[in-house]
Design goal:
With 56 residues, this protein is mostly helical. 38% of the residues lie in helices and 0% in strands. The protein starts with 6 loop residues before the first helix and ends with a helix.
Length: 56
């Protein structure tokens, strides 16, 4: 489970994180859009924010 999805429960103590010797899970994702279709401004901004986030 991604830590961000349980952040509130971890902070409040209703959920605790258990240690494990398992290797970390690597997740990959792709974003695709039609090259000749209009992209809404909020979607264009999301794409740019995502690119900047994963570039670092």
């Amino acid at each position: 489970m991604p830590r961000f999805s349980a952040a509130n429960e971890l902070a409040s103590g209703t959920l605790v994180e258990l240690g494990s010797d398992m290797p970390a899970v690597r997740m990959e994702t792709q974003m695709l859009w039609h090259a000749r279709k209009w992209i809404a401004p909020h979607l264009a901004e999301f794409i740019q924010v995502t690119r900047r986030f994963f570039a670092s």
